[in-house]
Amino acid sequence: MQSYDVVVVGAGPGGEVAAGKLAEAGLSVAIVEGDKVGGECSFYACIPSKALLRPGELLEEVRHVPGAAEAATGSLDVPAVLGHRDELIGHLDDAGQVPWLTDRGVTLVRGWGKLVGERQVAVGDEVLEARKAVILAGGTRAALPDIDGIDDVNPWTNREATTAQEIPASLVIVGAGVVGSEMAQAYVSLGARVTLLAGRGVLPREEDFAGQQVAERLAEQGVDIRTGSRPTAVRRDDSGVTVTLGDGSTVTADQILIATGRTPQAVDLGLEVVGVKSEGFVEVDAHMRVPGQDWLYVIGDLNGRALFTHMAKYQAAIASGEILGKPMVAEHMADGPGAPRVIFTSPQVAAVGHTTTSAEEAGLRVRVVDVGTEANAGGSYSGGGVGTARFLVDDQRNVLVGVTITGTAVAEFLQAATIAIVGEVPVTRLRHAIPSFPTRSELWLYFFNELGI
Amino acid sequence: MQSYDVVVVGAGPGGEVAAGKLAEAGLSVAIVEGDKVGGECSFYACIPSKALLRPGELLEEVRHVPGAAEAATGSLDVPAVLGHRDELIGHLDDAGQVPWLTDRGVTLVRGWGKLVGERQVAVGDEVLEARKAVILAGGTRAALPDIDGIDDVNPWTNREATTAQEIPASLVIVGAGVVGSEMAQAYVSLGARVTLLAGRGVLPREEDFAGQQVAERLAEQGVDIRTGSRPTAVRRDDSGVTVTLGDGSTVTADQILIATGRTPQAVDLGLEVVGVKSEGFVEVDAHMRVPGQDWLYVIGDLNGRALFTHMAKYQAAIASGEILGKPMVAEHMADGPGAPRVIFTSPQVAAVGHTTTSAEEAGLRVRVVDVGTEANAGGSYSGGGVGTARFLVDDQRNVLVGVTITGTAVAEFLQAATIAIVGEVPVTRLRHAIPSFPTRSELWLYFFNELGI
User: Which of B340, B425, B434 has the CB atom closest to A434's CB atom?
Assistant: First the structure.
């Protein structure tokens, strides 16, 4: 039996960061991975999706800027897009990711890890003992919805959609959350006819205007968006995949992508062996520890708090800090449903903290201030399209509790809002943080003006 | 004699904002302008320079993104760039700017305003009386350096460079501050042969790495940068303009642009009539009031605090707030030399607060942390080039006191740093402001890592 200070199960972004930080601090660390080091994010999610979206987004921007537009007369080069995507995902080989771990002295154990007792992880016939702690970072996989026939049509999930070597002539997407919306945009810009089955609408968890603006742009690009009715059956035959909706209508396409959410990979982790509920997300405390098990941490998607790579890495810092005696707890609205998030559609959607709906549900009395993302001097020359910035000010505490910004290339606008919220900077103090002219960040100035400060 | 609550002299961005805010609050306001409503910024500086730079910057970005690069095989369309520039500056007609004032009930008086007594401004034969206050917002104009022959060669200043209808085959630029560096980039990308006489180097007031990176990019684009020696004489003849440098070398070009700084338009404002020093920048207190003259405010470039449009607008809010009995003072390092600033070169330079040099001069003990702007997942697909982010942490107070970020399209990164500095958010709290993956804002995460928090 090999013995380590810490055994990490799962080498996605959360597991990697936790293992790296612990090893850098001098602990002996083993990390167990049955698939690819780097995880879903590096190979089948964040990275390849951005590689598919970025070229189209940038060309759209160029076409709005006279002088540059005339130089960009060609269309997206699809093989080049896919080829660059393949490079960025290392052609699905994790060899490029391993050195980050091994350079830090982390022992990589290939195979599926499973708890077989307190502080004990089995990988095949081998058992790894953890003197200090076990960190589970098993992540999630695509959830398949309960639709008649779904198991017989071999549907795409995010994995196939992000790594496809050919663009199907037509694609039907079930679900219009982040994955469904991003892939609808990517595939329509890459030349597919796309039908988006949006049920409750596009991006239903974000501010209404965000989903509406993305839906409008998708429709302009030719995406057929169907709302209000859910798929009830799906069949595949020689003509492709046919989805029947609750209202009796049908959609036929060459391929189907299921994008209806994620399910934790908690089964077969051996949680029940140590008395922890073994299905669904695993509950943890503010230190990412499983209540009652002072040696067991769960980070990343698996704890269900905030299914984002950046939050997995944040939780990795919290768990490893706790193990190293440098405790830090998730706080200041940085965690959970208010976590910062960016959806890389056109327009992009960048949000942190509450939406109007979630603030209401939380019983907060907020002042809602909307300004145009492009309605300033910075917007006049930069090449952006439609966009809105919504600020939610807590009336009692005089601080921001939520910001949503839509528009072209607004992903990098988010950190300012996140710092304002996490720092709980009073709006009267924020007013002295002057955005430079002529940048689109002057949306902050318009926010101050609307507030009358 | 017409009487108003407030008379504003100068309808640049500062004067406009002050007049607008006062009129919106119900005061009667006259604004006096002898040139264009909108000022230097709208017609001869911020706006046309961005219009000249943006197309080239965007094309450069596109050429770094496989899939989009193949669509952009043409070159910059110079007439289209100039045409769009002309649109954005209203073809040098301020008719589009006037309604912003008149809609708010501000009286526009055309002509040059001059103090002729306490609370009295003459415009030609007319005298306007100000019951409450006079705000001077006269701005600056290009300073001509003391070079033998300069008065005889009819040199370009920012005005001619930003509004040129033809691109000269060759251009020599004296001075490599913001105007010189931006115009060097614009003109080389528009097809001119450019020589940049940089004296102390490119962007000497910013971090060394910023100037070096911009200089390297300019050199790559073909700009001939001469440092270490200053112009001593200039002559124009049939072959163009010849500049002689202190080391005896010469440069000949079709046109010369002087970009060696700004001088306040304080002469002929009548300041001496009310006993105020009438040359150079006019000193003001934290309320933008001239000491000893409780009715006289000076905002924008004219007070010399921070020569930026956004700071003029900020000072306009301070002065008008004071007049309206809602006092707000410039504070929290938002004002003065630490004001936020963006230089729209390639790479862009975005900075707020101290540089390493200014922090040292101020006697601060700072920890300097450098990370790569593009050295993260966001940089892998977005199309950026070289870039560095420098964070200066005050060791005693544990807060940021300066940030400089260089890179592609980093202008919008600045507001996060500005909020962190103005909000005096401790770095241990900042650590919970998690940048989204995969954005380039993860440079903040790398900063936290380097700090070991």
Answer: B340
Q: Which amino acid is at B24?
A: E
Bridge pairing between strands B399-407 and B348-353? antiparallel
Question: Which 292-321 residues of chain B touch chain A by CB within 8 A?
Answer: 308-311, 313-314
Nearest CA distance, A233 vs chain B (angstrom): 35
Which whole-number Å values give the CA distances from B266 to A147, B157, B278, in the listed order?
A: 76, 19, 6
Per-residue confidence (pLDDT) for residue A336, from 0 to 100? 83
Q: What is the ipTM of this complex?
A: 0.96
* Cα–Cα distance measured from residue A19 to residue B195, given in angstroms and rounded to the nearest whole number: 53
Contacts with B221 (C-beta within 8 Å, 6 or more apart), sequence order: B185, B188, B189
Output the pLDDT for position B266: 75
User: Is residue B47 within 8 angstroms of chain A, CB to CB?
Assistant: yes
Residues A159-208: tens digit of each pLDDT: 999 999 999 999 999 999 999 999 999 999 999 999 999 999 999 999 99
- Coil, strand or helix: which one is A351? strand
Q: Is the pLDDT of residue A267 over 80?
A: no
Tell me the β-bridge partners of B156: B257
Q: CA–CA distance from A341 to each of A46, A405, A418, B37, B435 (Å)?
A: 12, 11, 10, 41, 9
Phi, then psi, of B25 in degrees rounded to 5: -85, 0
Instruction: Find the mean pLDDT for residues A417-431.
Output: 96
Dihedral sign, Cα of residue A134, residue A138, residue A139, residue A144: negative
Residues in chain B closer than 8 A to A331 (CB atoms) = 432
Residue among A46, A67, A441 minimizing CB distance to B438:
A46
Nearest residue to A416 via CA among A444, A437, A447, A396: A444
* Residue B246 neighbours by CB distance under 10 Å: 12
How many CB pairs (< 8 A) connect A and B? 287
In order of their start, the domains of chain B are 2-141+263-323 (3.50.50.60), 150-260 (3.50.50.60), 347-451 (3.30.390.30)
DSSP A9: E
Nearest-by-Cβ selection for B425 from A67, A342, A419: A419
Give me the residue label for tokens 């700004």.
B262
Q: How confident is the model at residue A337 (pLDDT cuts 50, 70, 90)?
A: confident
Contacts of A51 in chain B (CB under 8 A): 381
pLDDT of residue A406: 98
Residue B334 in contact with partner chain A when CB distance is under 8 A: yes
Q: Which of A436, A444, A449, A451 to mutate to test the interface with B (most CBs of B within 10 A)?
A: A436
Q: Which of A313-327, A328-342, B308-322 has the lowest mean pLDDT?
A: A328-342
User: Would an 8 Å CB–CB cutoff place A442 in contact with chain B?
Assistant: yes
Contact predicate B326/A452, CB 8 Å: no
Low-confidence ranges of chain B (pLDDT < 50): none
B330 vs A432: CB contact, 8 Å cut-off? yes
Higher pLDDT, A145 or A327: A145
